[in-house]
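Hi,

I'm pasting everything inline rather than attaching a file, because the server keeps stripping attachments. The sequence lines come first, and each chain or strand is labelled.
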Amino acid sequence: MVTVKINGKEITVEDNTLILDAARDAGYEIPTFCYQADLMGIGSCRMCLVEIEGQKKLQPSCVTPVLHGMSINTDSGTVQTARAGVLEFLLANHAMDCPVCDKGGECELQDMVHKHGPHKGRHAEPKFKFHDKDYVLSPVIIKNSNRCVQCMKCVRVCREVVGQNVLGALGRGDHQEPTSFFRAFMNCEMDGNCIEVCPVGCFMRLPYRYKSRPWDLKSSDTICPYCATGCRMVIEERAGTLMRAKAQLGVGLNSETLCARGRFGQDFVNNPERINQPLVRRYGKLEPVTWEEAISHIKENLTALDGDKIGGIASPRLTNEELYLFQKLMREVLGSPNIDSSSRFSPDAVEGFVAATGMGEGGVSVYDCMEADTVLIIGTHLSDENPVIDYIVRRISASRRMNVIIASPRAMKLDSSANIVLRHNVASENAVLTSLVIGLNEGKLADTLKGMHEAQLDANLKASGVSADLISTVVNRLAASSSIAIIAGTDFLRYPEGISGLGLLKDLLKSRGKKVTVMPVLDRANQRGAWEMGVHPGFGPGYSETRKGLGTEGMLDAAMKGELEALYVVGSDVASMYPGDDFARTALSKVGFLIVQDMFMTETARQAHVVLPGAAHAEKDGTYTNQEGRAQVIKKLLTAPGRAKQDINIIRAIGESFDRSFGPKHFALVLDEIRKEVPSYADVSLSFNNKRNTDNKLDNRGALVKAAAAPAVKVKSFNPASVETSGARFILTTGNHLFHSGRSSMKSETLLGLLKGAVVEISEEDAASLGLKSGEKVRVKGANFEAQMTLLTKKGTKSGVAFIAENFDDAPVNRYFRRGGGIPRVDIIKTI
Amino acid sequence: MEKVLLKNLGKPGSHTLANYVASGGYKAFSTALKMKPDNIIQMVKDSGLRGRGGAGFSTGLKWSFIPKDPTLQKYLCCNADEGEPGTFKDRGIIDHDPHLLIEGMAISCYAIGASKSYIYIRGEFVFGAERLQEAIDEAYANGYLGKNIQGSGFDLDMYVHRGFGAYICGEETALLESIEGYRAQPRKKPPFPALAGLYGKPTVINNVETLSCIPAIVEKGPEWFSKMGPVKSPGPKIYCVSGHVKKPGLYELPMGTTARDIIYNHCGGMLRDGKPLKAFIPGGVSAPLLMPADLDTPLDFDSLAAKGTMLGSGAVIVMDTSTCMVKTAYIINRFFSHESCGKCTPCRDGTPWLTRILKRIEHGEGRPGDLELLDGVCDNIFGRTFCPLGDGAVMALRGALKNFREEFQYHIDHKRCMVS
Amino acid sequence: MSRKGFDLFDLIKKVLFTDFVKGLTVTLGYNISKSITMRYPDEEKWIPYRRFRGLHTLNRDENGRELCVACELCSKACPTGCITVIPEENDSGRGIADRVAKVWTVNLVRCLFCGYCEDACPTRALRLGREYELACADYSCTLMSRDQLLVPQPVPESIPGGYVVKSKLERTPQGIKVTVDLSKFKKRSI
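And the predicted assembly:
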């Protein structure tokens, strides 16, 4: 700790604190352009110059650490002149086209000149112009270098946070221009973080170009509805149209970063294809009706039914309140235990995963995971599925240099930040984890491990396809670390065999006295919330004991046998997500009464008897629980189109038609009931904590849910996943694409502009041996399905692995899978 | 005076190892290898050798900042990015006596414990780079470089790294960035390169001339060296004289020789009779110029600093009365604005602004108030830039403005030049 | 004045109706002075000074490109919020920049002609012109859009104004219309 004097005020701060941070702590604002807490300081903009007593020159406060006894003046006359001077220089070559510039009104340069600047210009010379017309850098970025202030934040965020390295600087001196390689069209992650950090109108959003002014926009602070990272963001609308989404510096776990889906994918809300009125099937056709008619039609058809013959599937994109009310409707009003929240993962796998990752033990912050000595990332393609977690790992590992171990069959961008990469076979997470367990065990067998020996290690190594050397390196690193964080992804739910391995490794490391934190990474915004609200056939709210029911699979089986008389689907597209060719479709057609509540006319909705128009995240209030177990608030900005209603109101209306006293009548009252019923949610509040923690970690630990009272889940063991034995060359694996998540992203115009048609991803070597090149059209031929798509090659992916994301309408990947069958094999043939 | 640095200049085949060894080369290296590294550092400290690159920092002191931890990789970088207009001393050594530099570097590496060294040579010195590479290859072949040199257990690798023509690479941290493969832009200091330099390891960066002094110090002892020239900055110095003198060129003289001595004695006087001296720049274009009244100032670090200018690289540029000072200031400023790296705002946007104003004045488009504007812009640049480049540009212009203000004013008022 | 005694002066005043004439001087003076009313709109029309703040007009530059860049500063400056601007991208050369107004409307019922919008305009595209015949029988004239405002007003900027010109009232099926002849004017003070 050192004591310094800032503007005469004595303060005590940590060693090596930057003068800038110290001054901000003391309450003095220092203007900056190039400084950003998460990026390496370069001290180039010279806005932050301060006067240090005893030093002749002014010093940049953003790179100068405090020394004991320093006396700093942040606001003296010299400092003010220096600031005005710097701003005058910046304006000297600035385009000054504020009326045209999209940033006008929220531009840092404007604000600073207004506050500190020279209010009279002296520069009367011709200006240097980089180019006449704005140029397009990527489908979402348009650039005007004439406005650049050369803070290089774009270049640094691209390198240090996103890890894409597509931006750099051309030229020298006043001709220096941060841009892509010779202004070429960029093929990058399109996450637009360069836009977000740009203080001026140099990098601009193409979809938002010339649409509005910042003062026209009404905004709402909310949570991204795509993956379960739970990024805080602000969505903004003008005249009922959602205009843009942006992140805020120093707020939320993501700070100023978002991924392509989060930043550009929110416009699905504006899609004209939204259903805007209730529809009821009459004489084989869906016809518009009023809400009263629709609800009474539902009541008529459900009243006489036995509860066990009714099923309910709710999407993990609904809020906690809606999910809670949904399960209450199903369990208490309709008397049905058949509730599920996923059409992809089996309820048993979910239960095992919940137990193995310790979700019942309360929330785990991602920043706590980053404090560990070793971070093991397994079962997820983090860079594509949860890009913001990828950014956090990259940024923190660059400065903390902890061990990062990645196990994945597919190459990912984060590999470059990893110390060890385990390229294992598809669905062999269990083999990898078990070999680690055996390796760590060193003969001191714990009870659970009795019977395991060297021969099994060999078998596991063979199954995983990872070399013994690599495993032993990982084992050594794990053994040497005192704290370990395991980031486990959705592949454990797809191939549940790995769950037992995960449980074993966790228990073993814990028994060695190590601190183990397990963080699940999920791909739907409120997946964890859905489970914690009890939208699961195996457990009730807060993982409590409940009457067991059927999951999606069981419900479809029952439907196939004609035993399911009614099914209520909220926001889920079972027909196009459930594995198996036409099974779900046929089963749904046999359901006696199918109610679908959704935003869009999905495959499932087309088969429905009643279609109820629901609302998007921007149109409702509520809470989401992200993968870490952080319950965060989403806030309403728009009203749902036409006669569409918030899902919570629809669920309540159905409930009320049976029981007048059903449900609390307002989402906040529902949350109150959740707080009472689910002890782990007792502290969840409806206000955001906007403060940066003192350790600069952007973490709001207060929002993490507490441990459940008595979680009724246990780690299970599963049969190994079998791979089809056809002679086809590639094993097909699936997951989310970088630009798409689930089905709603396929309704976003901007995201479709980034990627519309299906792509199949294989390794470079495989492509070379097949004589194929990246970007070529290929046919992907499976045992029961065949589709045409674009080939994408990736360096470093395991040979013999083909990846097709589960999102594309033109190549529904679920049709390659067979219900109850193993992992499919496919062949890739060049289209002639 | 016995020449130390330029002793082999002009001798045929002076660049070959054979001739170098024949004239007593690499003797100092062999002597040094038998000494303790700390003693060499002490010797250099005692000699009072100050860096010849411009800043004039004590070389021995710089070396002693390097951590003594033997497990740590250390680097020596030779700054041969000689870009200052008017300077051509390093080129003389590299082209004609590369082994002197190699020997100096080898001794320095031994002293600081560096096993890898880089010579960052200016991109335009194609011939120099080739000759240096030949010399290094020769030295490797003859066991002056490589593994276990002369059985002492000391390993040294030497690389020639060619720049791509950026003046800023002469700034030591920008030079390091450039070697690492990044954009040549200065790094923030601290950490100083002595603690975290090339690839984050302790690094010493010295000028060619500085390193070339080392063999002589080791061979003849620090006392011999410190007796040459003034007490505070002893040793031989190469003056690069250019401009309106009869015999421009490289002159190796003891530090502290007066300008009068150099111009009228060694260089044979002014070029044209009837055109007396108007002004001279004592140390490269970033040094403020001096007037004929200052001719008797000894050209060494401290005396020049007292006059408000600097020795810099020792490039003496002599101008007679036919020189237009506005044009000179414009050309010098144009150089700096072209070479500004673009990192910090005052230098990036300030120097081009100065150039635009000067260009206007020079072309007879000056406006009243331009001189005050120049002063104002200079004030906004000076002391607020990241590295000394911006300061250098301002100092040069301020010097011209201070001494020749009426000439600038004449340009603005009469839209034409005062001298022609 | 004394009540007693004869006053010749008084008599003369009575005979000559002096008081009567005196009382009528103001009236008679007006009778022969210039009339201050105008035969508007049948014969005359007042052309205001340049400083007059009438109907908004959107200007073009000398090449016929719209000066408006849809920066929305007018709508921001407007105290009544009567201006709506929606920008769009158009680099066909319609405007001076690639940003032009897709929608530019002013609600004249709300407008109080304060001229803040004119002051805020960075490109001098928006001016408050000298058109003041804004009345109409329905709501059609209360919302003026970009296309209507881009039509040059009958009184160009070049005319200093401050005088009366000859005018003619025409009755057309669309309504009444006042046409002016700017070449014939007379100076008048009001």
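The interface with chain C takes residues 97-100, 104, 133-134, 209-213, 215-216 of chain A (CB under 8 Å).

If the labels don't parse on your end, tell me and I'll reformat.
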